[in-house]
Amino acid sequence: MPPQRASGTNTATTAAHATNNPNRNLRDTSPSQPDWASVNACPANRPAVRQPPPDSARSVSLGQEGYRISRTGDSCCIFAARRPCKDCPVEESAAIPRAHGHPMMTSAAIGACVGLLVAAALGVRYLSQVQEAAAAKAPVETYTVATGPIRSELAYSGLVSSVQQATVTPPSAGMLATVDVEVGRTVRAGDRIASLASESLPLQVQQAQADLQAAEARRAQLLTGPRATDVAGARAVLAAAEARLAQLSTPSLADVAAARATLATAQASVASSELAGDNSRAQLLGAIATACATNFSFGLPCGSADVPLSLDAQAAAESFLTSRAGDARSDLGARAVAVLTANAAYRTAIGNAAAARDNVAAARAKLEALGNPSAAEVSTQRAQIATARDTLEAKLTPYTEADMQAVNATISRAQAQTAIAEANLARTIVRAPFDGMVTQRMVEPGTNVTLQTPVLMLAAKGVEVRITLRDTDAPRISAGLAAEIAISGEERPLVGRVRQIAPSGDARAHTVDVIVAVDDPTGRLRPGTLAQVRLLTVQKANAIIVPASALITEGTAARVFTMVDGTVRIRTVTTGLADHLNVEVTDGLRAGDLVIVAGQNTLHEGQAVRPAR
Question: Which among 217, 221, 527, 604 would be 20 to 30 A from 170, CA to CA?
Answer without folding.
Answer: 527
